[in-house]
Amino acid sequence: MTTTAPGAAEQGPAGRDAAPTPDAAPPPDGAPPPDGAPAEDAPRTGDVPPGSSPWQLARRELRRRPAVRVSLCVVLLFVLMAVTAPWLGALGGWSPEEFDKTAVDPYLGGLPLGSFGGISPEHWLGVEPVTGRDLFARVVHGAQVSLLIAFAATAIVVVTGTAAGIAAGYFGGRTDAVLSRLMDLTMSFPSLIFMIAMLSVAKDVNRIVLMTAVIGVFGWPGIARVVRGQTLSLKHREYVDAARVGGASSWRILTRDILPGVAGPVIAYTTLLIPGMISTEAALSYLGVGVRPPTPSWGQMIAESVAFYETDPMYFVIPSVFLFLAVLAFTLLGDALRDILDPRGGRT
Length: 348
Description:
- The protein is 62% helix and 1% strand.
- It is built from 14 helices and two strands, in the order αααααββααααααααα.
- The chain is elongated, with a radius of gyration of 31 Å.
């Protein structure tokens, strides 16, 4: 008598369909995943190719953010304005120190003639009360002074801080102890009071050079700490150990292996430093210890406009708007670069 295996009767004809089938071949590259495949198996168009440099990564991400593109355009516009300030002033027809007594009313305390602070085809942004100096020429030359000090001070801070941070993190020991204590001492020093005192007593010194040096001296410990932490995490990586075992010098390891690894956070931190430098220069000029008249500066113009904010508000508004836009554009660009190049540094 023939016996039937348990479960065979229930399968019937459908049992043949339930038989195991060989694994399906994977879809060719670029083809959509089959139905039911997990979402992570699908190719993502936003993936960044491995081995991309920080600049390539930044370019790729910045193209996707409209607000950051606008900020980048504003930054480039300010840089172009600062570089071409002499030609822009000549295009407007006035130098920043040239008086135009015909543009102010001597019977009204020297207030600008016309509406909106004397804006006219001759003076595109109006004139300064009492003196009649062209505001457009003074604003573009003020951008040159502010950005020159900000960029130069940032360069001092970045170079000094990066060198100190890499040395402290890589060599460790006594070098790390000395540099770390120097960082703590510099950060605990009342830098603003020292800046005001130094700039107040310095009489026959180039104020732009002095402001750049003083601001740069007190700004390096922040980036040095960031670079030191990154270096501590990189110096025990396999490729660094391999270079050390292979007989590479410390200088070669620092420049070829460590420095590229900290480039991303340094670039992001650099962009975030610039708006702070612009604000510091404007604050010192506002307090009267910055650049000396008749050299134009946004902070100096704002300080002088306080006496006319009721009778000529445009004199206060115009340099304030330029200062606000410059700081905002650099801040937004720096925040975006920090999120892209140093995502862990932007999280708490």
